[in-house]
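The aim of this short unit is practical: by the end, you should be able to scan a pair of folded records and say something sensible about each. We start with the first protein, listed as its amino acid sequence and then its structure tokens.
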Amino acid sequence: MSKEEKRSCQNCYGEFVIDASDFEFYAKIKVPPPTFCPECRMQRRMAWRNERTLYKRKDAFGNDTISIYSPDKPLTVYPRDYWWSDAWDPMQYGREYDFGKPFFVQFRELLESVPVSGVFSSNVVESPYCNHVWRLKNCYLVFASLECENVCYSDKAEHSKDSFDLYLAKKCERCYWAVDSEDSYRLFFSAESSGCTDSAFLFDCRNCQNCFGCVGLRNKQYHIFNKPYSKEDYEQKIHELDIGSFQNFQKTLNEFLQFRLTFPRRFARLINTTNVAGDNCVDVKNCYRCFDLRENVEDGKYLTHGGFGMKDSYDGYGIGICELLYEGVDTGVDGGSRQLFSVVVYSSSDTHYCFNCANAANLFGCVGLRKKQYCILNKQYTKEEYEALVPKIIKHMSDMPYRDARGREYRYGEFWPVELSPFAYNETIAQEYFPLTKEKALEVGFCWRDTDKKKWDVSVLAKDLPDHIQDTPESIVGERIACLTCGRAYRVLKEEYDFLKKERLPFPRQCPDCRHKVRFENRKPLALWKRQCNCAGAASENNVYKNTAEHAHKETHCPNEFETSYAPERSEIVYCEQCYQNEVV
């Protein structure tokens, strides 16, 4: 087994470490070690995933369709249902492998010839404006989600219904603006809470009902800003707060954001985990630098958003139910193994450099294939021919590597170059997690697409809306409202208006994209810093929080260190697991 090695990233030139367990994994899947550092590999993968940018363009039949591919992209777009049908055959675009030019050039040529589906979705009903989704019904502007019904303006939602503005929420019903939360009913403007009902402005609460503006509570009811009330006094106070008024809502929100800074945070949101370094993981074991994973994930590194039985895998986003996955995006869903360097590959095994394939095996450099095996560049081979040709292609990829405009080399073992992505950098989630200016993106070799210049024909300015939801007439439905933040026009659905009216919630002044941005930017980054616990004995280091129990370290500063997504310069009070448990649970 190779020992730990320090290497220089050929993209950012920073130093990164490949340890003994990494070398063991790479040997197991028979790929060379990476030449990009983990952060640059993540950025590169994300630049191949357009999650939220939708366009109206003509499909191959001249009809308007919703697509994640902008109208100027040289791609043939089929309507989603037609793409999934047997009316066409992606094998007809197959071609011989050309040893006279780099593999990645050949793959891009194939990608531009094989028709693509307008959006990535499966088993959806009346949900055309959604992408990277599975089993949705009556959903609108929902992304990277599954098993939802009557959900709008949400991202990474699961098994939820009749809700709006969710982000990483699971089993939520009649919720509004719930982030990193689950198993809740009528939970509004809350984060990192579970099992809560009829509550608003909660953070890190569990099994609470009729609570408002609370932090770190367990099994409580009728509390406001962590203070207990009688049922009658609680209801009277909630009536007085009246967040149906946008002005009252803003005042309460600001108070709550300041209030929650006075309580200690758990260094990482790790639930039922063993030997895990990361954040927001549930039922995970032996994973490092992993984020937003759940349900029986074992032995992984550099994985984000997914899980569901994933084992022994590295470097993925939106992945699950797979083993020996490496460098994958939206890959592994519904099972599979050895899915390497692939985007949107489901229920498949032994796939290399594939794009949007399903129920397949032994594919190399294929696009759009379903229920196929032993194919290279969409051309059929026998098992013997395939097994003889693939090693030659792998050798050719090293002998004739692809070189991008900046001189970076891509041999076998590297994910696709960003410049070959069918999406501009700012159309993808890479721009969310690794934001760049247009000038910087172009400087480092990424593509950029300027926003379509068109007149925003607005009929109402958000700043001119009535202050209270009860004073907002139903005629606002369908109006083109100018977003208070970006100025772009947005509409409110009748279902959303009725929901806000019934729940006495404030009418939104921002468009769905700006609301998503607020939720996203309030989450912690996909990064780790080494820090020491902020518990200084009887109180926090900044003396803002007074401990309620005696800790093992008593009056001395807690010596515990950890890796956390809270950067050292942030203002939150961050406690280790032991100190947090003493105070909150």
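Turning to the second protein, read its sequence before its tokens, just as you did above.
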Amino acid sequence: MSGKVAHIRNLAFIGHSGCGKTSLAEAMLFTAGATARLGKVDDGTSVLDYEPEELKRKITISTAFHHYTWKKHTVYIADTPGDDNFLADTRAALHVADAAVVVIDAVDGVKVGTEKVWSTANEYGLPRLVYINKMDRERADYSQVLKGLQDILEAKPVPLQVPIGQEAAFKGVVDLVSLKAYTGGAGKQMESGPIPDDLKGQVDEWRSDLLNYAAESDDELIEKFLEEGDLPVDEIYRGLRAGTLAGQFVPVLFGATHNNLGYPLLLEAVNLFLPSPEDRGQIKGIEPKSGAEVALEPDPDGPLAAQVFKTVADPYAGRLSIFRVFSGTVKSDSTVLNVNKAAPERYGQLFLLEGKNQKAVAEAGPGAIAAVAKLKETVTGDTLATEGNPILLPPLTPPKSMMTFAVEPKSRGDEDKVYSSLQRLAEEDISLSVNRNAETKEILLSGMGAVHIEATAEKMKRKFGVEVNLKLPKVPYRETIKGATKVQGKYKRQSGGRGQYGDTWLEIEPLPRGEGFQFVDKIVGGVIPKQYIPSVEKGIVEAMQEGVVAGFPVVDVKVTLYDGSFHEVDSSDMAFKIAGSMGFKKGVQQCNPVILEPIMKMTVLVPEEYMGDIIGDLNGRRGRVLGMAARGKMQAISANVPMSEVLMYAPDLTSMTGGRGTFDMEFSHYEEVPPHLAEKIIAEANAAREKE
């Protein structure tokens, strides 16, 4: 196998929104010479945050990619979002990463966003480093961060350094392996010097802990350490690397991005402690025809296995497919097999991404993040492979949508353009889903939260020139009846020439909930000719769709046509259709009509301390709690709740639980609306119909 693969690193920067991930990645790229200037998020010069939606909000919305070379190592980086609304992008990046750098703000400590991305990194078994950032800020407190790593994230932090000072007094760090102090120097480098006298006691204590962790990861090292009481530098690194890759502990570094403090040492730590594709081992997948599990080595000369984990929709360049190469080598101007679609894909130039720019390359091997444009069949999650040796890689799992908005074009007649533009954006972002509700005639856009959907609308305006209004979706109410009646529907019109005549007698009665509609023909003796009976049914079905009480579709009704009369000349299909419709509308009014509302089955996942608040809130939303069950450290509350009460549940749950709660919901059934609410719904619906 090529020795080059051992010098490849593929990592994602993860952390809570605002912890400084992007600034840190920018500083590392600049220090390594990959960029010519130090980009900054706050002044809009960032190489990695370049979308207008990101510049406006000063947060990362979409994962950005770059790469650098440092001391013979090529490192591919993904700068991921930390905001809850965009964590689907972070999850996709972690799906294909070999490791993570977890950035934690020294002032804010371990926040909810840190917990969420840490948990995802656990799911994927990713080795990681922790970088405690913003050590120069007021109220910076690294001891609180170390405690949070242990207590909240249940990690074993192993500091590789002792900070020299804190807040405004932060000057640098003491490296516990080389026993040198590093302070900020001119340009990109830090200057080394002796350990400050006041830190010698802490350095001895922390170094002793570090040596214990390094030795414990290797039987040979532990014997040597017990005998000699110390280890050579290269063996300390070997032990720390082994423990980091095995997930036994997490090395911790300290720094302040804006003062050139700490991150040059992080560049070293990435090379020393994080895994190459070889360290991560075989990639396992499925042979598509047989379903048998197959494994491939991360060998540049092996069969190709690459996975598209992000798609960027560009109105000019077309679709850009971004993929991670796990095995084999991708070359420019080639044909590969899309294993999911069993379709060959021909493409031209191969690119490496450098923020918003692209660098043309001839080939890319294991560990590389690369991109090609205008693949015809390929979407996010698809595997690209060699035709003679296909492998299907594990699929991406998008999170469930948390919020839905109705999307209304600002210009009349733009509905189709809105729908097609949203579908293209949903290809780019797998946490978005788009559909048309045939009943309410609305285009519905579902995503992770209000900010996610607003940013999508802004992106649609910028990329496709379509402006929209976002509003809460209409609740798809229904109408039904509780009583029964017999009623005549008669339509008679006489004008100068031929008239119109249709006469029907209908029996209308309720059906059990969920039974829909039944039409029974009990006409005997030809009182209504057979050719007109389907027209009666058609008139009733159309009246049901338009609703009788408030314009909502009528359901769970049985209508029996049992009598009537006709006219030899004046009867027609149209006359009987109108007669059936008139009879049905009149009859429903006599059958104690009621409004039905959709009930959603919800599962709310929250820490135990919030259970009382959540149950009380669900009861206040007319919900019915069905049960509770422990899921690890969380509690899952199951409940049936009316849809109208939970249209804005996502932000409410976030504020009730400090962002720690999640939920999913699906349609369960329909139930009758209480009379006092039904009156209000009917009044609003009729007012809206009059306005239209």
